[in-house]
Amino acid sequence: MTSKGMTSVPPAADRSALAGARRIVVKVGSSSLTSIKGGISEESLTALADALAAKRNAGAEIILVSSGAIAAGLAPLGLSKRPRDLATQQAAASVGQGLLMARYTQAFGAHGVTVSQVLLTAEDLMRRSQHTNALRAMDRLLNLGVVPVVNENDTVATHEIRFGDNDRLAALVAHLVRADALVLLSDVDSLYDGPPALGAKRIALVTGAHDLEGVSIGKAGKAGVGTGGMMTKVEAASMAAGSGIHALVTSTPNAAAALNGEDVGTWFSVNGSRKPVRLLWLAHVASVQGRLVLDEGAVRAVRHHRTSLLPAGISAISGDFEAGDAVELAGADGTVVARGLVNYSSEELPRMLGRSTRELGEELGNGYDREVVHVDDLVLV
């Protein structure tokens, strides 16, 4: 794939949309702020705060999604590398989060900007009441001129309900707060069509999945303190662009240039409309706990008519799940057509398969005449 210039790009896809954005979510990775040996890099963090504070003082609203809590806690705990077990990760995050916020408070404070700490779990965005409360709090902070510093709440998160990396968290936060743009910062200045060391060319613009066909996208870098990589950034940027939010992937030293709309990094132009944040979580982040096998009629109803899934259309189930868990909806040939939040457990469903809701309600009582997956809790894949 060749590098794409900006001369023929339509106005909606131009980086000027970022320069004039009113509300921007910026995500920075651990490798840009910390190292295992040195902890938090004062120089890197201060430079980033300078760029973001300048944009904030120019009138934009900034939400910073910052990794680095676990990495910042390694040195004080005498750990030589990022721990693999969840308990030690949680301990490092508990120590490091306070250190990270102290540095941000000082760096932004030098520009007269107040920061706040916002810690989220995946559950905060999957439950309607909780993500409504999160939105209300963030809106109020922004109205008060504060820069919220968001991170996953590593200290209490479990393997089952984790975002997995802060790139996906940033994309979901961008939707939660109705941001105009998402900027993903790391230690790589752009997406390339191969290894830069071998003469690969920069990809300046991505308009859709077809622009990434044949592109080899790297995983996590060598610093040893992060969990993501270019792959997760591309996924997060594509998620945002496919849901009506401009996205840019570039390096942390390019932050100021990016926020000014200069030609840096890889620009993901909008190619879809806004979607509820809960459905984005379901499509891209949720941990699937089981599978429902649908007959041909149910597949057509779900895929083409956007209807709720009823027990009569299910021929088999697999997995161990509770009511409210995410499950896959698949045809008899194994093709997954959708994901959804199931209203019954894997213990309840077997006796309901192939039966009408009226029959179930009469035989089993109130509560068993509901849909298995309501259309509002279902997303096509």
Structural class assignment = alpha/beta
User: What is the string of helix and strand elements?
Assistant: HEHEEHEHHEHHEHEEEEHEHEHEHEEEHE
Our measurement of the CA-to-CA distance between the termini, rounded to an integer number of angstroms, reads 26 Å
Unreliable residue stretches = 1-12, 220-228
**What integer value in Å does the Rg equal?**
22 Å
Can you give the mean pLDDT? 84
- Report helical residue fraction: 25-40%
Shape: globular
Strand order of the largest sheet: 5-6-4-1-7-11-12-10
List keywords for this structure.
17 strands, single chain, 34% helix, 381 residues, eight-stranded mixed β-sheet, five-stranded mixed β-sheet, disordered N terminus, alpha/beta
Summarize the structure in words:
This protein is an alpha/beta fold and 381 residues long. 34% of the residues lie in helices and 20% in strands. It has helices spanning 16-19, 30-33, 42-57, 69-74, 86-109, 122-126, 128-143, 166-176, 230-241, 255-259, 277-284, 296-305, 357-364; strands at residues 23-28, 34-35, 39-40, 61-66, 115-120, 147-152, 181-186, 191-192, 202-203, 205-206, 246-251, 266-268, 288-294, 314-319, 326-330, 336-341, 378-380. It has an 8-stranded mixed beta sheet, sandwiched between helices. β2 and β3 form a beta hairpin. α3 packs across α5 and α8 (166-176) runs antiparallel to α11 (277-284). The two termini are 26 Å apart. Residues 1-12 and 220-228 have low confidence and may be disordered.
